[in-house]
Amino acid sequence: MVLAELGTRISKAISSMGQAMIIDEKVLDGVLKEICTALLQADVNVKQVANLRNGVKKRVNIPELAAGLNKQRVIEKAVFDELCDMLDSGADPKKVELKKEKGKQHTVMFVGLQGSGKTTTCTKYAYYYKKKGWKPALVCADTYRAGAFDQLKQNATKAQIPFFGSYKETDPAVIAEQGVNRFKAEGRDLIIVDTSGRHKQEAALFEEMKQVAAAVTPDVIIFVMDGSIGQAAFDQAKAFKEAVEVGAVIITKLDGHAKGGGALSAVAATKSPIIFLGTGEHMDQFESFETKRFVQRLLG
Ligand code: GDP
């Protein structure tokens, strides 16, 4: 189920209470049943859905609610808070937020599986900061996929962002280091290193990520994940987190038919802060993520 549909279904379930003569336990159970069905269809994990249901029941004790209190609003607030809890990693996104400091040159390394949208997201990220007055630069350290450098080159050129890569060098750690050094010397304040992906999370990929990270000592490592993979998201996010020091996550492809609920809640469960969402193929289809604001928009 598309994310927007999920929000509409939850909101509809809540507003349907307005038609009930009295809001009692039975009405609440009916509403929760509809919300839980919608979440499951959006690929949220069964356990997380059960947690949300129990959490709302705990927050809303119908017999104990004072007379005259707007029960619908109380329930709505409880659902809102539980959705926020489910999507909140508990990690502090402020810790990985880039802050402009005089003389500080940030290096950010991107990791993720092939096809997750990593290269596209690197450019979106660079472009986002460019619009905020930063001086970004892109380094292609993907020597695995033929055409990776050309793709990055094309994207960077479109966004008018300097880039670095090599058609000859086969060691990604060497290219990464050369690129970062070059852009440091040129005074860029945000150096973004795109790395290779593989089709699955395999030992060779993680070994390569460790080598690149050791070569460029990034300020933060961002893990990019395809938002349409549903429940597989938890294991993938966990595997990357265990292999390298993932500081933040960007979830892509939350447009179209992505069952995004699964990815969003699964990543939060790995306790990595989600910082941006990709919502299309274009450079500006990129949004910063903040749990409360996201849930507010989801519910309309
Ligand atoms: P990489 O292999 O991880 O570097 O992935 P790419 O950046 O090459 O992206 C793979 C495909 O996903 C490309 O066709 C991108 O245009 C597409 N893509 C990336 N991000 C998004 C997104 O947020 N929404 C949609 N619809 N497509 C995306």
TrEMBL record:
- List locations, semicolon-separated: Cytoplasm; Endoplasmic reticulum
What keywords sit in the KW lines?
Cytoplasm, Endoplasmic reticulum, GTP-binding, Hydrolase, Nucleotide-binding, Ribonucleoprotein, RNA-binding, Signal recognition particle
Q: Which residues form the SRP54-type proteins GTP-binding domain?
A: 273-286
- Top-level lineage group: Eukaryota
Give the molecular function GO annotations.
Answer: 7S RNA binding; endoplasmic reticulum signal peptide binding; GTP binding; GTPase activity
| A GO cellular component entry from the record | signal recognition particle, endoplasmic reticulum targeting
Catalytic activity entry: GTP + H2O = GDP + phosphate + H(+)
- Does the keyword section mention Oxidoreductase? no
Which Gene Ontology BP terms does the record give? Answer: SRP-dependent cotranslational protein targeting to membrane, translocation
Q: What is known of its domains?
A: The NG domain, also named G domain, is a special guanosine triphosphatase (GTPase) domain, which binds GTP and forms a guanosine 5'-triphosphate (GTP)-dependent complex with a homologous NG domain in the SRP receptor subunit SRPRA. The two NG domains undergo cooperative rearrangements upon their assembly, which culminate in the reciprocal activation of the GTPase activity of one another. SRP receptor compaction upon binding with cargo-loaded SRP and GTPase rearrangement drive SRP-mediated cotranslational protein translocation into the ER. The M domain binds the 7SL RNA in presence of SRP19 and binds the signal sequence of presecretory proteins.
- Family of this protein: Belongs to the GTP-binding SRP family. SRP54 subfamily.
Instruction: Briefly state the protein's biological role.
Output: Component of the signal recognition particle (SRP) complex, a ribonucleoprotein complex that mediates the cotranslational targeting of secretory and membrane proteins to the endoplasmic reticulum (ER). As part of the SRP complex, associates with the SRP receptor (SR) component SRPRA to target secretory proteins to the endoplasmic reticulum membrane. Binds to the signal sequence of presecretory proteins when they emerge from the ribosomes. Displays basal GTPase activity, and stimulates reciprocal GTPase activation of the SR subunit SRPRA.
Q: Can you state the subunit structure given in the record?
A: Component of a signal recognition particle (SRP) complex that consists of a 7SL RNA molecule of 300 nucleotides and six protein subunits: SRP72, SRP68, SRP54, SRP19, SRP14 and SRP9.
**Identification of the protein by name:** Signal recognition particle 54 kDa protein
Q: Which gene encodes it?
A: PLEST006635
